[in-house]
Specification:
Length: 319
């Protein structure tokens, strides 16, 4: 398949965003993620295939979805849902919701293009997010190149869990990581056992991937890497967790981080998708954010809230 016919599952485009890279940005959210973080605010990103959610609070019991369902799945019968999305198209109230659609690069460019002048004026661009965009490395690389040819800055937001890749190789992941202009890299739970329990994957590869990318950046062989820590009450905001990550960053000559306060936006979406409720209770308020920043400052790390980053710390003239 030629690069112009590549597709990838995308579940959302968001415009006029200020919290995921410098300037005013548009965000492309890819479906598919290797982690299952207990606090995830985008559970519709987990599975790579398009899927259907059910918002019971909007259902008026009209039976339109049942009429068009070819397998009986909409009526709760034994037939398996084939994800034909006829029920979504027929539903008059939006109770049936489609999450994800296979997109081509050309169609995404068409949707993003109206914001290109605003991105240029604000020093913004496009951020590839998810889910995990690295899972769609070949597609994301083509999209990145097409955007950069149009003068658009491209950032990549990653959970860091991907196969350890030689950055000097021809592997698609290496090509993607080295082609973007900025990497936003999530660091979550330091303790390996707790990371497995809460995110369902080990974190050794995450640490090693950050180390490899940061070393390459310092050698002027990779784009800047900007770490971000989600502040989840009682989990990632603890003194122990923050102190461990602060030491990790200092050792890698990285003195800055963004702390992202947790909110429970994903709770309803879990219900729509028939997932178990999140075990996380409570949101992260300003007092908790300030406490976390104080802990990091004591360890020599400058921390920022989303949208307040001093991006000049990472010289934009560098690769």
């Amino acid at each position: 398949m030629g690069s112009d016919r590549l597709t990838a599952p995308v579940f959302s485009l968001q415009h006029f965003c200020l919290h995921d890279g410098p300037g005013i940005r548009s965000l492309v959210f890819f479906k598919g993620c290797p982690l299952r973080c207990a606090w995830c605010q985008n559970p519709e990103s987990w599975r790579p295939a398009p899927e259907i959610g059910f918002r019971e609070d909007r259902c008026i019991g009209c039976g339109a979805c049942i009429e068009v369902c070819p397998t009986g799945a909409a009526a709760g019968a034994d037939g398996a849902c084939t994800r034909c999305f006829a029920c979504v198209d027929r539903c008059p109230t939006g109770a049936r919701v489609r999450f994800g659609q296979d997109r081509e690069v050309s169609s995404l460019l068409a949707d993003l293009a109206p914001e290109f002048p605003l991105m240029a004026d604000s020093g913004g661009g496009v951020t590839l997010s998810g889910g995990e965009p690295v899972l769609h490395a070949a597609f994301a690389r083509v999209l990145t190149s097409a955007l950069q040819e149009r003068g658009v800055h491209v950032a990549l937001s990653t959970c860091g869990f991907f196969a350890e890749t030689d950055l000097g190789s021809q592997h698609p992941v290496a090509g993607l990581l080295l082609s973007v202009d900025l990497i936003l890299f999530d660091l979550k739970v330091w303790d390996p056992d707790q990371h497995v329990r809460l995110c369902k994957r080990e974190n050794r590869s995450i640490r090693e991937n950050f180390t490899r990318l940061q070393r390459a950046y310092l050698d002027r062989a990779a784009p800047p890497v900007w770490p971000r820590i989600p502040l989840v009450p009682g989990i990632t905001d603890t003194r122990e967790n923050l102190t461990q990550w602060a030491g990790f960053l200092r050792d890698r000559q990285c003195g800055h981080v963004t702390v992202v306060p947790y909110h429970d936006m994903g709770a309803n979406k879990r219900q729509w998708l028939g997932l178990d409720p999140s075990p996380i209770r409570g949101e992260m308020g300003d007092d908790g954010v300030n406490r976390a920043k104080s802990i990091l400052a004591q360890q020599g790390i400058v921390s920022f809230s989303p949208g307040e980053e001093a991006w000049e710390i990472i010289d934009p003239a560098r690769p």
